[in-house]
Amino acid sequence: LLMHMPGPLNAEQEYQLRTIQHSTRQLISLINDILDLAKIEAGRVDIHLTMIQCQNMIATLAASLRPLADAKQLRFVSEMPAEPIVLRSDERALNRILINLVGNAIKFTDQGEIRVIVNQHINEGQAMVAFAIHDTGIGIKSADQARLFQEFGRVDSPEVREREGTGLGLRLACQLAHVLGGTITLDSTYGRGSIFTLKLPANTAADT
């Protein structure tokens, strides 16, 4: 109908159809998140380990999400060392985590920039890869930060209520990170922005 195949639509009809289309997509996304969370919590998630070149993954991620930042006139910056960073993990799960974190950063930032920083380090003798997503958005009060990692966890404030979301995305990202042997941490200052950091072992164990 939106392609006007049956005939032209008036403005009100087109608005209503776009609203239905958008709501349907939101509902499908919510259902998929609930199903994925249920699979993870039941221990039935399938992990397929491959060698991932992080610079290539971030370049692809930036290409897909930069238009969202451009639409809000936000700078989108990625910082990575010249030397390739390679890790053994599940590419689909990692990509989903990063899309969630970067997408949230864009959603809750109205001016300034989104900066994705990737580096590799050694922690207690184990090689780790860190993906830090910095934003200059609305920030999160200390009292509200733990709630974000719970199912349907959303901050009850005017700044958050006016933005779409189910409160499941970050919980799902954290669960996927755990399955991959990693963690997601948050450092945020209300009114100044947030840093979400995903840390993963460079070589995820096959039985994780």
TrEMBL record:
Catalysed transformations (reactions): ATP + protein L-histidine = ADP + protein N-phospho-L-histidine
Location of the Histidine kinase domain: 1-204
Alphabetical keyword list: Kinase, Phosphoprotein, Transferase, Two-component regulatory system
Cross-referenced InterPro entries: HATPase_C_sf, HATPase_dom, His_kinase_dom, HisK_dim/P_dom, HisK_dim/P_sf, Sig_transdc_His_kin-like_C
Gene3D superfamilies tied to this protein: 1.10.287.130, Histidine kinase-like ATPase, C-terminal domain
EC number(s) on file: 2.7.13.3
Example of a GO MF term: phosphorelay sensor kinase activity
Domain of life (superkingdom): Bacteria
A Pfam short name: HATPase_c
Family of the protein in this entry: In the N-terminal section; belongs to the phytochrome family.
UniProt protein name: Circadian input-output histidine kinase CikA
Origin species: Kouleothrix aurantiaca
